[in-house]
Amino acid sequence: MSAAPLLSVDDVHLRFGGIRALGGVSLAVAAGQITAVIGPNGAGKTSLFNAISGFYRPQQGRLVFEGRDISQVKPNVRAAMGLARTFQNVALFRGMTVLDNIKLGGHNRMRASVLQAMGYWGKSSREEMALREEIERDVIDFLEIDHIRNQSVASLPYGLQKRVELARALAMRPKVLMLDEPVAGMNREETEDMARFILDLQEERGMTILLIEHDMGMVMDISNHVAVLNFGQLIASGSPQEVRSHPDVIEAYLGAREGRAVNASQGR
Fold first, then answer.
1. Is 101 within 8 Å of 164 (Cβ atoms)?
2. The pTM is what?
3. Which of 28, 43, 8, 19 is nearest to 224 (CA)?
4. Rounded mean pLDDT of 76-90?
5. CATH for the 1-82+174-268 domain, from 3.40.50.300, 1.20.58.340, 3.40.50.720, 3.40.50.150
């Protein structure tokens, strides 16, 4: 018998007035695997992420994480439970340094009282130092950004800003890492670096990753499972090999010509 999914989306419906963003979407995210969600613009991918992370409240269906129904759980509590995400558009504090931005990701794990934090003594000071050491060891070195950790985020090129945002999510110690278009706007070298980091997170750390991405070459190369949305509905789900040859996917997302190109490149 296969193990229960770490995260499951069960018949989720999401509407905004007369607009249907999601129409009965179901998705299972297996522990330790990379699950990709693909589809054309407006298919409902980011709406699905927002429903999972708690920014949107579905009108129907439920979300289950580690066997617990989290449909009514607040976003900050979901984050503390281990659901961490990045955003399609970089959402960093541009006036702060790289290190300070990353440290914000660990804020939900701090246990010092407000008074202790204001005085920066005792427990607050110890927690701050422990968090910094952990980030330097497990995040900054891993993502190869030690050389920029004291720079202002605003001074960095876009590709490095996306890497810093990933670092901030990792500082949350996620059980499920949700990446919304992690390589959007990147050049080939930056894309290859990000794909390598994502694979290493899965293979070396056993991390469960749920990602939205338009780069089909990357999706097919690194994903274990691919789910396809179109007009808020799930039209295909399976291995990359199964999905890339699915006629509905080729018609709705890839287009017949690009679908043939992807299939040919994967067959080499």
1. yes
2. 0.84
3. 28
4. 90
5. 3.40.50.300
